[in-house]
Amino acid sequence: MIGGVTSSARSDDDTAPVRFGLVGYGFGGRYFHAPLLAAAPECELVAVVTASPDRRDQVARELPGVPTVGSLEELAAAGAEAVAISTPAATHSVLTDRALELGLAVVCDKPFALDAPAARASVRLAERRGLALSPYQNRRWDSDFRTVQALVAGGVLGEVTRLESRFERLAPDAGPGASGGGTLLDFGSHLVDQALVLLGPVGSVYAEWRLRDNGLDDDVLVALTHTSGAHSSVWGSWSQGAPGPRFRVTGSTGSYVVGTDGGIDGQEDALVGGRTPATPGAQWGVEPAERWGRVHRGDAGEPVRTLPGAWDTFYPAFAAAVRGRGPVPVDPNDAVATAVVLDAARRSATEGVLVDLGR
After folding, report:
1. What is the CA radius of gyration of the chain?
2. Closest C-alpha among 126, 151, 144 to residue 194
3. Same fold for the domain at 7-138+314-328 and the one at 143-308+342-351?
4. What is the pTM of this model?
């Protein structure tokens, strides 16, 4: 079972915190994983894997008492039970598979793998080893996406026919980064995952992109036709001077819009600013009223209180899975489904064709 683990990744005391190692201490490891692990009493950060002298110095300053090691093998020898992998995209599958071979449960940042075959291979390895494996799809717990799910589940919008979703910003010198694998993989991993969670499996994929001089894709559009008949259109860009609405979700009785003034969920800014779920307590993830979206029914719209963001729930849920007390927070087979769509989008953008996933 993917949600369970073998004894090689379990403490004798199933109430003890899960002993985690963090692989990589770049932006993601430093701001997304380390603070959330530290804020979860169910987890204990025992070491950081990095070979960079500068990163080792950062760890010593920012995580006093947490040692650095040079490899997964050293991490396992130090008593780790699980790892959080936050390294360049091209290394994810190799590190995931090696950690599983060492008997470690794994959380792997997005993109989970560069393509669907690699994603499937990791899932099968975890199944054979009986180890917990979960892609780090933290944006399922964004404040705005949680609100979208609640409105859809409550029937507020009627039958949903279209999802529009965007990660757009103007930062031409900052991205797309090679470490993220390009905009399709970097932003698309979250955008497509959210579309699949909300509207289910996909039957066909059409995509467009613009390649930069460095060969990395940017200004990406992916249009999905779901097997239910609903449609999703998702955009990702590092060079958009006029970002569109974060969400526009259209149903038979209304539409929910989170505009550009709402921006993207504030948990990232909070973590980068040095705050953690342990800092504001119950106020973690709460969005101010000016960032709330509106439900429109052919009018100016009615504001809807945004549900709090909940990135802080991921690691406690994963720790419970390692201890055999529940499923992993994100099924790794969901990462395979996302990778299938992203593979099809890459082919569509390259060849200029509609890709039918039923064939």
Report:
1. 20
2. 144
3. no
4. 0.93
Q: How far is CA 45 from CA 16, 82, 327, in A?
A: 13, 10, 21
Among candidate residues 24, 13, 10, 3, the one with its CA nearest the CA of residue 104: 10
All structural domains of the chain with their residue ranges: 7-138+314-328, 143-308+342-351
Pairing label, strands 105-108, 43-49: unpaired
DSSP string, 17-68: PEEEEEE--SHIIIIIIHHHHHT-TTEEEEEEE---HHHHHHHHHHSTT--E
Lowest model confidence (mean pLDDT) among 18-27, 140-149, 350-359: 350-359
Evaluate the CA torsion angle 281, 26, 75, 333 in order and state its sign.
positive
Residues 202 and 353 sit within 8 Å (Cβ to Cβ): no
pLDDT per residue as tens digits for the range 156-175: 999 999 999 999 998 877 77
Backbone angles phi, psi at 206, to 5 degrees: -130, 140
Residue with tokens 């779901």: 226
pLDDT of residue 359: 66
CATH architecture of 7-138+314-328: 3-Layer(aba) Sandwich (3.40)
DSSP line for 146-175: HHHHHHHHTTTT-SEEEEEEEEE-B-TTT-
Per the document, the length of the chain is 359
Question: Topology of domain 143-308+342-351, per CATH?
Answer: Dihydrodipicolinate Reductase; domain 2 (3.30.360)
Sheet holding 302-304, edge to edge: 302-304, 293-296, 255-258, 247-251, 160-168, 231-237, 217-226, 202-211, 355-356
